[in-house]
User: Fold these one by one.
Assistant:
Number 1:
Amino acid sequence: MQDDPRVLMMGEDIGTLGGVFRVTEGLKSEFGAKRVIDTPLAESGIVGTAIGLAMHGFRPVCEIQFDGFIFPGFDQITSQLAKLTNRHEGTQSMPVVIRVPYGGHIGAVEHHQESPEAYFAHTAGLRSVSPSTPHDAYWMIQEAIRSNDPVMFFEPKSRYWPKGQVDFTAPGVPLHASRVVRLGTEVTVLGHGAMVSVLLQAAEIAAEEGISLEVVDLRSLSPVDYGPILESVRKTGRLVIAQEAPGNVSVGSEIAATVSQKAFYSLEAPVLRVSGFDAPFPPAKLESVYLPDADRVLEAVDRALAY
Amino acid sequence: MSSDAMGPEVPPIQLLDASGVLQENDRTTEFLPVIEALSDEMLQRFHRDMVLTRRFDDEAGNLQRQGQLALWVPSHGQEGAQVGSAHASRPQDHIFPSYREHAVGLVRGIDPVDVIRLLRGTTHGGWDPVEKQNFHLYTLVIGSQTLHATGYAMGITIDGEYATGDPERDQAVVTYFGDGATSQGDVNEAMVFAASFQTPELFFLQNNQWAISVPVSTQSRTPLVRRGEGFGIPSTQIDGNDVLASYAVTLRDLDAARAGDGPRFIEALTYRIGAHTTSDDPTKYRTHAETQSWIARDPITRFEAFLRSRGEGDAFFLEVEAEALDLAEDVRKRTLALERPPVELMFDHVYSEAHPRIDEQKEWLKNYEASFGDSL
């Protein structure tokens, strides 16, 4: 916001309160109410007016308060925001960022723990990313705002609390770059957002048992950066994909299909997926069963190794 | 709530009655000086734009019937509301139409064939709004554009491009929508945001009485003008088949919006004489008598009578007729010459910046098509 006066923040409770997760805390007092806009409570209104502001030359950054509240804005995101550059045949870009705190692990009520990213990864015209660490979040949000295309920025809300080092030395982190975060040799395990910490935990446990896991942080859901993923799979010959979202027609499904096709002769086992179940996100007392944990990841690792 | 509790019904603002007689009464007094100030050329322009739009609209309908367009969206009957309001806007204003505002587009300088291209299937857009006096693209999802308009108007407030007192610089936004759209959440959210941020914006509702087959009584139990009032937006109901009322009230409301007085709402009572689209059959849901009663209130007929009462002679009307025929012939000729767009159009503007998946698929399709050699 300091670098570019055309960047605006808008959303419910993001100004005076600083957002329900306090992500925008202090911005209103620093940049004023014209650039940090507390909007009426209407998600379609937030996205729809952000589109108009982008047409006026602004770079709006919208906050959707919780994952499950994005659907009232779904039409404006998928039918308008995603398609307007195409409809204009390139004369109008849409530099809008939609920030979405998403995912489970926080013991909240219905609509507050969901992982809706597949809907948006499926939609042409959008870019979808999800950082897993404070360092990635720091750099990727800046890249998202700099992008002339609409970016769905999925923030794993359970990762708002753990602290981490941020290296402020440019050039930082690109918007669409998957990355090996732990080297290993026997099975590649891949995930995004909060799942990356579960995978690292699984890799620790596996190492104690003498199994070497390579952990890949997806970071970008659309487009997927397949280079590091394929390189890793060609080395290990095995891939387990983990995600909080339900597995049916998910981001993990697409990656499994693509890796099976592109690394077919390197694979020693079918690509396995560990997902949330194809049921609505359960009441909080059951979330630890619904969400993939290190044990479920390791169960899949064992299955992959059994081939 | 009884209708009494909401106050008495007030008749719509009407400056020209159905026979073209200028109405001088308490409710029109404030607008008459604006009408008197209009030059003969401007009055001629109103007539010309209405006639040209109707002839273009008829020709496009013919082209559809002849299999040249998949669909056409007729504007017949709504020319008064559109031409009047369009001429009341200034070049620096931004217009966010729905998809039936052919007359507004023509006034703002779009090529009518660009509207045809949308319906012939060679584009989803058709023009660059920046080059066409800020006439934005048609939006087919009902009511979505009202939020874009409100966002644009919020941008005007943030940049202070209004309320400076300079009428050549101050900006406003007009968004067009229909009676069916008033039931959409987006239209209601747009009015909430507009009222909250006091945007320089006019909500121009063309109530043409029918949302395809559903009458306006199914959308609302109260006159739709009260929707605007309910959001705290000063609202006026006008005779939408009266081009002068549409012009004068829009002029007043846009001046207020540009001056920083906040949003305004106009409900223009009009009628879609034709079908919703060429795929529709209005005889299934409305009576011949109803349509006839609105034909008797036609915007062009009454304005022609008004011009003749001021001394305009046959020569002018014949000249406009000839111009309309030329336009129709030109539209027909250029429509038939429209070609399929290049295949790359599917890929070229999905994103503003490079995207590996799109590039890969574009390349794949190119090679796939090339694999057929010259036989294609």
Number 2:
Amino acid sequence: MPTPSFLARLLLPALQIKIAPVARFGLILLVVAAVALLRAAFVTDILPYLFFIPIILLSALVFGRNSGIVATLAAAVAAGCSMSPTGNPLSLSVAQWSAQGLFVLVNVGIGFLAAELSRSLVLLENLAEGRREAIHRLAAATAKHTRLASIVEQSQEFIGYADLEGRVQFVNESGKRLVGVADPRLTVVEDYFTEADRWRISAEILPAVHSHGAWTGEVEFRHFATGALIPVRYNVFSLRDGDADGAVVGYGTVTTDLRSQKLATAQREMLTRELAHRMKNTLSIVQAIVSQSLRASGSVAQARDVIAARLTALSRAQDILTATSWTQADIHDVVQAAIAPHRDEGARFVADGPHIDLDAQRALGLSLALHELATNAAKYGALSTAGGCVRMIWSLDEKIFRFEWIEQGGPEVHVPESRGFGSRLLERIVAAYFDGSGVLQFGQEGVRFVLEGELVSHPSSAEEA
Amino acid sequence: MGQSFQPSRFAVLVVEHDPLILTEAVDLVEEAGFIAYEARNADQAIRLLERHPEITVLLTDVDMPGSMDGLKLARAVRDRWPPVRIIVTSGHTKVTEADMPEESLFFAKPYPPQTMVQALTRVAEQLLR
């Protein structure tokens, strides 16, 4: 843009002043009279016109052609007054009349020119202003479009459009990455769908777009390079030229990748199935405990008590496993949980052994064994007297796991006449959990139980209970 | 019930990884009067079948560690010992007939003991015919 000239900078603000024609003419006459008086008072009689020319020029520039004419005529009258020996502007010599005529003619011309110049300046300024506004509007519109384009380009969604024949015209970067396509303009909409879903385009999707303007649903895209299936929420709509009333020129899409969502759902379902299975298994174990306890019990009341106690032991073991999402349990935690009810009643225990991770099944098995031993010790063994105590010592040497329960300071114990579920659990069932043997000894010192089996301590391969 | 039906003439192979559940199932089979063999995985089960031709019923759980689960074991037994009757039990509700060999029975765990005894008895009766 050219910078406005000095004249334009002075004149343009003055042109903004709006004054009624009568006031304008009055103002011009006043100025002409004032200049005439000043001239008469201080200046010589020569150059009668000179001082009026700037007034005429200014009048024409600021107020226009007519004001220029008024100023010229007023100046001529004032000049006439000063030139006439009588002071009457009409009693002039021929030469003076000629000068008057010439003065009026020339200055009316100057006024015309000045007025035209002024109008041209205004016109030019208006043009410049219009151009500035247009450039601003264009810049704003361009910025808006650039931002919209950035949104499309940088969105995490698959955004693209195709022409009415289904030839893809554009796919944003996220979209290209999602399906692994390098040049979308070489593809058609069908190419993005799996074989199994392609029929839906003409049968289901396009009819909906034609009648409702849009379609949204879950379909599977395929990866162009690997062929991998990509579950997506496909949203497709008629793309109109310009605004909502424009003619349909193609199809637009904003498609969401559903892979992580599907994965999360699948994991949740798997977890639920896993939990249900675990619950069924636990119920089977409960059924076995109840059934075995009933077989070995003399009365219903006795059965009720032992079943309740065994299920409580099972429940405590499950608490430990729940803390580790049923992967493993530290043997210390298992031991402490199993003896806790007896310890609360003042029984003395010594537990000594390394930290070993037990899988869920073995943790449950050892819990049940310790429950049987402690219950028996409290009834008949070392925990039935004030001075008795129980030592638990375990070790893991290579793969060989050894666990000893040694009662000391209790009464002499004898081999029971009938072997109940407790002995069976210790000697056979718990031994089986450790793929080894369980030996229960009764003697003067008290009960001694030795469990020996194989244990490979790697938590990641923990089996389910 | 047939005159000549004597459960003790039939041996049932119980395959279950959990020792506690295995013990209970073996007790149940023995209470019904059958001879019981027990295995904690498919490999043990196959070895017992090879050694004891008197085994006529396979009662197996589905989940077990090792190279074969209970369903694979059932199909292997159907191939190698076609006369052996198969009963599958599982805590998985998703086990369907399609997963099992033909004419095998399925019991969801935990199952009522009496129902299992009746099923074993029926299977043994069918074997007599």
